[in-house]
Structures are given as C-alpha cells and as structure tokens.
Design brief:
Blueprint: H1 12-15, H2 30-34, E1 37-38, E2 44-50, H3 55-64, H4 67-70, E3 73-79, H5 83-91, E4 97-101, H6 102-110, E5 116-124, H7 128-134, E6 145-150, E7 165-168, H8 174-185, E8 194-197, H9 200-209, E9 214-218, H10 221-227, E10 230-234, H11 236-241, E11 244-251, H12 253-258, H13 260-279, H14 281-292, H15 296-300, H16 313-325
Parallel strand pairs: 2-3, 2-4, 7-8, 7-9
Antiparallel strand pairs: 1-2, 4-11, 5-11, 6-9, 6-10
Helix pairs in contact: 3-13, 3-14
C-alpha cells in the first residue's frame, strides 16, 4: 500500500527565509565552474550542496549503497543551511548540484538565476492529496508544516485567519505561501491576514501570550507546540503541492550542457537511492535523524517520508500557479526547459 504523505522537511521551510539577493555572490568563471575533477580510474568527483533535512538522508543512503560509485561518481556532501545559500554556492561554483524546494527555485529563476531541476529530492506520492481528503483525515499529520492555534481559540479553520495575526518564519516565503493557499482554498482572503515574522523558537511563547493568533510551524516545533496546549487547524503543504516532487536537486544549465553523462548518472543514482529509502524506512529514519539531529521518535511522530523517482513539469506548474494566483510571482517562467528529462 502506497503512503499518501510527504517527507518531512522541517528545516526546508525556514530555508526560504533568506533573500535571493545572496545569489549574486562572486565565484570562478563559468568554464571553470563546469569543469569536474577527475579521480583514479576515471571517477568524476562531484560536490553536492545539501541541507540538514530528510531529503539528504536518501542521498546519503545512496552514497553508502554505492549507487553513485556505480555511475562513476564520487560524491562529497557539503552541508549548507538553506536553499538561497545552496543556490549561491551553485552559482559561485562551490558545488555542482544543490537542494532547493520548488518555490524558491521559481523565485530565483524569475530573477534570472540559471537553474534547472535534475532530480527529485522529496515530495508526495501520486494522488496523495486525493487519498488524504477521501479518507476524511484532513487534520491527521500529512506534512512537516502546520498551522496551530491555542487550544481555547475560536479559530477552527484557515478561513478564520482573516484579520488575525499569523506568525511565519519569514515574509513572502514558502510557509507563508502555503498557508495563504490554504486560506484561499477554504474561501478566505489571505490579504486580510496580519503576517509577522518570528523565529520558530519564538512562535510558541508568542501564541501562549496572545501576541499572535496562529503560528506556522515545522517539525519538531509542531510536536512541542501540541504538548503545550496548541492544536493543529491545517497542514498547508499537502493542499498546495498535492503530489509529486517538492524538493529538488538542481544544477546550472551550463554545467548540465557541459556534463550530460555525469548529470544523467547523478539523476539515475538519486532516484535509485530514493526508491531504496522508500522501501527501507527504518534505515531512512536513522539516516534522517543523523542528518537533522532530530530524534527518530520525533521524526516518526509526523508523516512518513517519501522520496519521488522523477520530476515532472506538472510539479513545477502547481507551485507556479499558486505563486502567481496569490501574487508571489508576476508570471510563471517557461517551465518545460527547467526540468532535465530522464
């Protein structure tokens, strides 16, 4: 039986909190950035900019299982705190591939940053949203992001957030967009929300004190908030993305054009690793705990992880349509050229 929930990206939401302006960082020339170091026996040495999130667990498992070695690749994982920093490292030539969720990628592309999606890093199984709704479980964990209110609050749905103060980790980034999408889906007007930016650590005290009416949190803070008399009214991610790839492994088009065989091998190894992680969740949870520094027990309290085996243009289209509809993008860029086909 296929799981219908998506992977936790507890740190992947706060990622989008950093401005894309960092992507103009200086680096080596484009030709130098496209060169790949050769190791013994023709092995190609590749550096991947990865975040301390569950998506990286599948990558690490793939390295351990030899999937990348089978493709003639030697992978060095460089830990990077957030997607804008990962994309800056990519543009600067410090890494060859980098992790980013689809919405920050689309924002970057709209600002003329050269990025293409090579492989899926995390996301939802096919028909995840439909199965979740059909099961009548719209308040069951389906996400590592959630909107919470105080236990005694009169707020019962995201539509009730009109006119209310809602805390998010940063303005106009992925968690705000997904909450705004949830409000719109329930017939509300997200422009009437009073958004404020607070750190994840500061949100729970602000909710308890009445400074804010609702908070947009991530795991493990969701579980902490629930233990302190907060309740979940929405899991906004699944309603926005619904299915398919959300987190992506990206590279520059110039690097892709200069190294087509390497890119194809990386793509095959990632998706093989994703399949292994899906079929061996105990190993995946252990590796995710090692990567995120979050206890396995806490990781298991939410939705089970899922790593897709492909990136479809439709995955980017869903994200872009939401961003345009809500005013976070003026218009969607051409999407087909942004996906490297398998």
């Amino acid at each position: 039986m296929r799981r219908t929930m998506r992977p936790r990206k507890a740190l992947a939401v706060l990622l989008a909190a950093v401005t894309i302006g960092a992507l103009t960082a200086c680096g080596p020339s484009q030709s130098d950035a496209n060169e790949v170091e050769q190791g013994a026996g023709g092995v190609q040495k590749v550096t991947v900019g990865a975040l301390p999130i569950s998506a990286t667990a599948a990558l690490q498992l793939g390295i351990e299982k030899g999937y990348f070695a089978d493709e003639g690749l030697e992978i060095t994982v460089q830990s990077i705190p957030n997607p804008p920093a990962a994309m800056a490292a990519l543009q600067g030539g410090q890494v060859d591939f980098a992790y980013t969720p689809s919405m920050p990628m689309l924002t970057a592309v709209s600002q003329k940053i050269d990025l293409k999606a090579v492989a899926a890093a995390d996301g939802y199984p096919e028909n995840a949203y439909q199965e979740w709704v059909a099961g009548g479980q719209k308040t069951d964990p389906a996400d590592d992001t959630a909107v919470l209110v105080s236990e005694n609050s009169s707020i019962s749905s995201t539509r009730d957030l009109e006119g209310k103060v809602v805390a998010v980790p940063a303005r106009k980034t992925q968690l705000e967009i997904t909450i705004a999408s949830a409000i719109r889906q329930e017939g509300g007007d997200p422009s009437k929300v009073k958004w404020i930016a607070l750190s994840f650590q500061d949100m729970i005290p602000a909710l308890k004190s009445g400074r804010v009416d609702a908070i947009g949190e991530v795991t493990p803070f969701i579980e902490q908030a629930r233990s302190e008399d907060a309740r979940v009214i929405s899991y906004p991610g699944i309603g926005t993305f619904q299915e398919g790839a959300v987190g992506l492994w990206v590279a520059s088009s110039s690097f892709i054009d200069a190294n087509p065989g390497l890119v194809a091998g990386f793509q095959r190894a990632v998706h093989k690793a994703n399949g292994y992680a899906n079929e061996n969740l105990d190993e995946a949870y252990a590796k995710a705990s090692e990567t995120t520094k979050i206890p396995v027990k806490t990781l298991r309290a939410g939705d089970p992880p899922y790593w897709p085996d492909t990136v479809a243009v439709a995955d980017l289209k869903r994200a872009a349509e939401v961003m345009v509809k809500l005013g976070y993008l003026k218009q969607a860029p051409p999407l087909e050229p942004l996906v490297v086909q398998q």
